[in-house]
Design goal:
Order of helices and strands: HHHEEE
Radius of gyration: 12 Å
Number of helices: 3
Helix content: 40-55%
Largest sheet: 3 strands, mixed
Strand order of the largest sheet: 1-3-2
Length: 71
């Protein structure tokens, strides 16, 4: 499965990121593309992700989610 998705990897996204995204997707029950953003953020050393698509103040895979539009 990773090989099938790896062909879409652009510069900076690795097959290891795709594999990590599948794990995050399963554990957090979020979409693959959101999970891929989180996987790359983790690899990059981020502690927080700004997203309007994920739940505000939720912690996923060690990252705090911040929704700038949440009240």
């Amino acid at each position: 499965m990773v090989e099938a998705y790896a062909i879409w990897c652009v510069e900076g996204i690795t097959p290891a990121d795709v594999s990590a995204a599948f794990q995050i997707e399963d554990r957090a029950r979020i979409g693959f593309w959101d999970a891929l953003i989180l996987a790359v953020a983790i690899r990059s050393g981020a502690r927080r992700v700004v997203s309007e698509d994920l739940n505000a103040d939720q912690k996923i895979a060690g990252l705090m989610i911040h929704n700038p539009f949440a009240g």
